[in-house]
Amino acid sequence: MEIVKSLIITGFGINCEEEMAAAYRLAGAEATIVHLNEILLKDYSIHDYDVLNFPGGFSFGDDLSSGKVMANKIKFKKLTNGNTLIDELKLFLEVGKYIVGICNGFQMLVKMGLLPNINGQFEQEVSLIQNDSAQYEDRWVHCKVTADNPSPLTKNIQQFAVPVRHGEGKLIVLEPSIKDAILNQKLNCLSYCTADGSITDEYPYNPNGADLNCAGLCDPSGQVFGMMPHPEAYLSLYNHPDWARKKRINPALSEDGEGLQLFKNIVQHIQSQQTTANTQK
Amino acid sequence: MGKPLPSIQVILKKEISDAKGSKVRKQIKERTGIETGAILSSKLFSINHSLSKKQLSRFAQNCLQDKVTDEVFVNQIHFPKNYKSFIAISKLAGVTDDEGISAQTALADLLNADIDLCVQSIFTQELFFLQEKLNEENLKQIANKVLGNPLINHFQYGTSKNPNDFIPFVPTVKMEVDTSNQFIDLDLADDALIKLSKEKVLALNLAEMKAIQAHYKSEAVVAHRKKLNLPAQASECELEILAQTWSEHCKHKEFNAIIHYENKETGESKTINSLFKTYIKGSTDKVKENLQAKNNDFLVKVFSDNAGVVRVNDQYLYVWKVETHNSPSALDPYGGAITGILGNNRDPLGTGIGGAKLLFNTNVLCFGPPNYDKKLLKGQLHPAQIMEGVRHGIEDGGNKSGIPTVNGSIVFDERYSGKPLVYCGTGALLPHQYLNKNTWGKTIDAGDLILMAGGRVGKDGIHGATFSSIEIDEHSPQSAVQIGSPITQKKLNDFLVKACNLGLIKSSTDNGAGGLSSSIGELATLTNGAVVNLEKVPLKYSGLQPWEIFISESQERMTLVVEAIQLNILELLAKEMEVELSVVGKFTNNGFLRVQYNEQIVADVSMHFLHEGVPQKTMLAEWIKPNISEPNFNVAFDCNEILLKLMGSLNICSRESVIRQYDHEVKGKSIVKPLMGSQGKAPQDAAVMRLDFNSYEGIAISNGILPRYGDIDAYQMSAGAFDEAMRQIISVGGQLPNTKEGDEIFWSVNDNFCVPDSVFHPQDNPDGKIKLAKLVQMCEALYDMATYFDIPMTSGKDSMKNDFKAEGVKISIPPTILYSMTAKMPDIRKSITSDFKMVGDLVYQLGTTYDELGASEFYKLFGHLGANVPLVRKEDAKRLYKKIMEVNELALIESSHDLSDGGLATALVESCFGQNFGLNISLDNFKGLTLQAILFSESHSRFVVSIKAENKASFEAFFQEQATFLGTVTDSGKIEIGMNGYKLVHLPTTQLLEAWNNGLNSHKVKRDNGNS
Fold it and tell me: Quick one: which of A215, B421, B622, B638 has the most CB atoms within 10 Å?
């Protein structure tokens, strides 16, 4: 079986690249961290990889709104071959590969028009703006997975705990047609919920006031996935704020964190696709 | 006035609620009492580029507008209907405008054009529209006290009658200066020398000024200057270099002074030659011997670099530094705190060769109470304003750098309302080697190049080092404010880590206090000389004098030492990572620090005189026992009421509202976080982090600070703070060092002394001798504790002039010491958190309670100080801690919380917050103590622990009289404490939790009462 190759973008204030890389490595993939300028200025090719990741952080200090300056770079800055990086991302998706954005990375994907991309035009359709609390917050939340959503990352997961750490995570869906399409196509793959799994708009379970109580989106193809909370910060059981009691109650509890499963899912999904492709050859 | 620049305004669409506007409205009401009505926020960009109309609107729509949520207005200012007042806030000239620079980046990317990102050409303004029609005085008050700071911001305000008069403000720096070399005649009488020192903010005393005077008169110096065609007088730049290098901040003159100490209580008198050498370095020397004797020598580098270095394992070294940034935070709380934390980050980053990976931040803050109601003095900011600014600075400094803030503390005392204390700590990991070279060494050879990397130099922060060494008064220089840019530093940080790993850097250091003059001056001691070409230093704007360039404390800069052969490849890397890099000189070995500006020599100072020439101070200390006694306390009190009050009191209540705004999880390695349990409410003792994803090795981080105990006994205050930090690490499952041969358990501690002016002066500082005596006693305690437990200081800092003077009033802080402790956790999975785990578990107190209510939070409720301050009994403590270590091998303890502020009662309550457990507690097992002593005494070296019921027998047999059985964890949701059949406490856990949660909120002032 070929090893899954994951590329992780960093630079300009991105700061979760190392735990993203750890997530893929623990999930059995190979992970490479690359500075965005190596791609923009030095012809580093994204096409050698199976999954491309935009991690969390504060790119450009959240200036001009979160993810905006990076999204702008990707949309307009010309590579040496004359394409923009978003042209390359389109090619990357055309051959069936995957793009993941977490927190600041999710904000970038939304602002460059990759999520939810219902109209397929790569134009911004929704937004992520300042939390209702008007402040940055670090707290643990519960996410409920929308059954049968198109993303392979959430496969076979019903619900998981995960930390949010952001100031601008409130999803705004103004256009009714976009809202309908999101709901009909189950693109709102993650929703904030209470510990017992009821989706809620109550603070702090929904930590930012997001429309649809939505914590994560995917595109209609399921190839692009983004979420505000940080699954890469819950790779180990010992990241959870109540780990000691959980372990007391169940000493046989797995030492893996619940966030790791998302990365295992995408890696296994790509592996199974490769296997299918190989057998079809 | 010229034609206004093209402008673009961005404002939220009407259908989007403006969370920021609502928050600001609330803050204004809280801090000024002014009702503004609804507030809308907006952003304005002024663009100093020649763009076509089409380009401008493309820029507006693509780069500045969020098409989903925003409206944009090009070249017109939109004043929303029904909003009758406005306030516009912009940066003052020369203050970095990061968002403007980011807009320039966006413009460059949009047009695929080259735009200089080092020169500000897009300027931002924040606009607030207020519903109510407010008068100018109110608008001014809101602008100055809530929305900005007049030291760094420019304000415009008005009413809707005059919006058409509003022209966006564009800050421009216009300075005409004479850059020729100035020379200063030092052949002056004593009083003229003092005057000169004061006028030039040199912060040098008469003896120091006279030493400089004598130096310039000496034959060798006269001959040397003649040879160079320099006048006999000192150049302005030379004086400034000497002042920076000899500043208290850089040379620690008082910690190195000769002190004549007299203890009137014991009759002892002695002469101490340097507190630092005698007690601090002295204790580490002794600890090192003890460690070596048991094959545990983990100390790699102490007191000789920017941060202390210890060995973790074969893979890593651990680097640890804690500093203060008090004076800047008093003037500009946000800027002071953000540059405090970013500046402290650069210490581990610039240790050895450099490039350590930053692992975590900590911060300990001392403020005046948020409900401070005295009239504010000129230049004094309200403690609530300082607290919010500092908190915000730490938030941005840590969060935007991707470094988790894992541990901290906030102490309130009215004496911090002049100068707050802002302690910033950073831990980092270094590999042992880069390409077979030891990372912790600093080697430099003559001929190596000096490079400056990162931000540019402006007037900001000039005289920071000398300024922090004098008291703040209403004339404090505005340029002492420093401006932080986390994004600039993040880029610099990423670049340095990569360059070091590639072997391109030979050594590095931070540009902090004293700027280039200090960083180069210190590095040059390794080769004995350097030549600097100041015209090569990139500036934010023109108009700086050469000496200003050399001593400016503009932030986010590091000085790198690079071999000429590596320069090209390093420059390519810097370009790719968008970090500005400039060769500004080279190291020599001729014994002189020479500074040139366009071929002209502006300074040529002997390295020996620069570093060894400062005369040793002599100071007087005298200890007189204060006249204090225990109160005759026989008041009947209601335990329920007292406990609720204590839980909500300022020094005990929850810090959740602050903690949640700090990222304590980034890097994915945080194991014990500030708040734990299923509801995220249970406060913890030490923080625990793992070191990487492949092993469970980790580190515990704690802090100890008890300033109010110093009102009774400074020695016990220092010893107690040491014990507090140490017992937190024991509580979380850590181990004392050096208890076994070759156990690889490292400890690394930073001591941080912050004291008021302790130089005796009959009129200005009549109690200076007592203050200094307290400092001596704090150092004695440090020595005694460190050497008894073999816990080494590896780095530290002192801040000596924490007084605020204005209008003839002086507000001095209490002498304060912070111990910031870190220790190895061999397996983080064995960490013990403070919260109870299961119903039915048995609860014990470990350690002994004494009648020690002196300076307790309990006495404070009744307005008493008392005299029985908690004493550290180090022999008992060590015996107990070693037993806890033993019992932890068997994993018998399910939860452990150390006892501190509020004593046993508050620790029991806090331990229930993980899961809103109930408690059924009897105090019958305590003998010979009053009820208040049992519940509220703050005796040291104690813990509340819980165990499984099945382990009762073995646990009790093991601890014997060191353990006192208290009761059981219940599911009643009620905390019930009784004694001799009486019910003393009977309260729902949720009620106590609520009191604890709302503590900070309930101490807010409704109105700011100061002068505006």
Answer: A215
Q: State how far the Cα of B673 lies from the Cα of A244, in Å rounded to an integer.
A: 12
Q: Which two tokens stand for residue B834?
A: 């403070």
Give the residues across from A165 on adjacent strands. Answer: A138
**Overall average pLDDT of the B793-815 stretch:** 94
Question: Which backbone phi and psi does A119 adopt, to 5 degrees?
Answer: -85, 0
- Residues of chain A positioned with their CB less than 8 A from the CB of B395: 136
What CATH architecture applies to the domain A5-131+176-189+218-280? 3-Layer(aba) Sandwich (3.40)
CB B554 within 8 A of CB B513: no
Residue B138 inside a domain? The answer is yes
User: B695 CB near a chain A CB, below 8 Å?
Assistant: no
The token pair that represents B593 in the structure block: 């620090």
Asked if A134 lies within 8 A of B67 by C-beta distance, the reply is no
User: Which amino acid is present at B378?
Assistant: K
CB B699 within 8 A of CB B404: no
Task: Note whether B110 and B49 are within 8 A (CB).
Answer: no
For residue B914, the chain A residues in CB contact (below 8 A) are: 242, 245
pLDDT band at residue B476 using 50, 70 and 90 as cut-offs: very low
Query: How far off is chain B from A233, nearest CA to CA, in Å?
Result: 4
pLDDT one-digit tens code per residue, B273-324: 999 999 999 999 999 999 999 999 999 999 999 999 999 999 999 999 999 9
A146–chain B nearest CA distance, Å: 24
Chain A and chain B share a number of CB contacts under 8 A equal to 207
Domain tally, chain B: 1
Domain-located, residue B80:
yes
Task: Using pLDDT thresholds of 50, 70 and 90, give the confidence band for residue B199.
Answer: confident
Residue of B nearest to A10 (CA): B494
Question: Distance between alpha carbon A173 and the CA centroid of its chain, in Å?
Answer: 18
Q: What is the pLDDT of residue B176?
A: 67
B670–A126: do the CB atoms touch at under 8 Å? Answer: no
Distance from B377 to chain A by nearest Cα, in Å? 31
B763 in a domain, yes or no? Answer: no
In the stretch 90-129 of chain A, residues with CB closer than 8 A to chain B read 111, 124-127, 129
Q: DSSP readout, B287-353?
A: HHHHHHHTT---EEE-SSSSSEEEE-SSSEEEEEEEEE-HHHHHH-HHHHHHHHHHHHHHHHHTSTT
Q: Does A63 touch chain B (CB under 8 A)?
A: yes
Q: Which residues of A are catalytic?
A: 103, 230, 232
Tell whether B79 is covered by a domain. yes
CA B82 to chain centre: 44
Query: Is residue B857 predicted with pLDDT exceeding 50?
Result: yes
Q: Is B400 on the interface with A (CB under 8 A)?
A: yes
Cβ proximity of A73 and B109 under 8 Å = yes
Min distance B659 CA to chain A CA atoms (Å) = 8
CATH number for B100: 3.30.1280.10
Q: How many Å apart are CA B429 and CA A45, to the nearest integer?
A: 32
The residues spanned by each domain of chain A are 5-131+176-189+218-280
B191 and B599 Cβ atoms separated by less than 8 Å = no
Among chain A residues, CA nearest to B832: A244
- The two beta strands, B437-438 and B433-434, are antiparallel
Picking from B487, B576, B696, the nearest residue to A60 by CB comes out as B487
pTM of the model: 0.96
Instruction: List the single residue in B with minimal CA-CA distance to A41.
Output: B576
Which residue range forms the structural domain that includes residue B116?
Answer: 7-165
Helix, strand, coil share (%) of chain A residues, nearest 5: 35, 25, 40
Distance CA(B484)–CA(B338), nearest Å, equals 6
B835–A245 C-beta distance less than 8 A: yes
Using an 8 Å Cβ cutoff, are B456 and B584 in contact? no
- pLDDT computed for residue B1011 by the predictor: 39
